[in-house]
Design brief:
The chain contains three helices and eleven strands, in the order αββββββαβββαββ.
């Protein structure tokens, strides 16, 4: 029995340190994923995605081991009016009937500050996948997050509509679309 316990301890020590990665989900009750479009610097249209899901495997000590995956329902967008909603969901823009989801999957996570990260990966919209980078900042206490408390954060990124075939004939907004996320993660 003593020999068995000793072998178990040796095996655990040989296995190395336990991973500090934990799995988190986007708290949908406390998170907003928005888009902003402008024309000549003035905001023309904004909206929110009402249905989405996200799973994040975070390692606060070694962020390069972290992974992020977010999926948005393109048909669940609200931009202020039924007419605008229908236009954005329509064939020339997101084409929600043919492409019901858009997604982001990280490939690399880099610490850029004590509370900030750069998350690079692949964004897929309308079946087209392009590189996409998000800058994220933890707004809360990292030590409390390590203990399992909720993690308030905000993140921003942007992409060009033509790269995804969005609104080829639309010239009422600039090509740049900004994505803004403000919310929290929970376990």
């Amino acid at each position: 029995m003593l020999r068995s316990a000793a072998l178990t301890i040796v095996a655990l020590l040989a296995a190395g340190p336990v991973s500090a990665q934990t799995t988190w989900r986007i708290d949908r009750a406390a998170t907003e994923i928005s888009f902003i479009t402008k024309r000549f610097g003035a905001v023309v249209a904004t909206g929110r995605f009402q249905r989405y899901d996200g799973v994040l495997t975070l390692d606060f000590d070694m962020p390069e081991k972290s992974r992020v995956r977010v999926t948005l329902e393109t048909g669940a967008i609200q931009a202020g009016s039924a007419l605008m909603d229908g236009f954005i969901k329509g064939e020339s823009m997101l084409d929600s009937a043919r492409y019901p989801t858009a997604s982001f999957s990280s490939g690399r996570v880099t610490r850029t500050g004590e509370r900030s990260l750069e998350i690079s990966g692949q964004l897929t919209i309308r079946g087209i996948t392009q590189p996409f980078t998000v800058k994220a900042v933890v707004d809360g206490d990292i030590e409390r997050a390590r203990r399992g408390d909720r993690v308030p954060f905000h993140a921003n990124g942007s992409f060009l509509r033509p790269a995804f075939g969005i609104g080829r004939d639309v010239n009422v907004v600039d090509d740049l679309v900004e994505i803004a996320i403000k919310g929290q993660l929970s376990r």
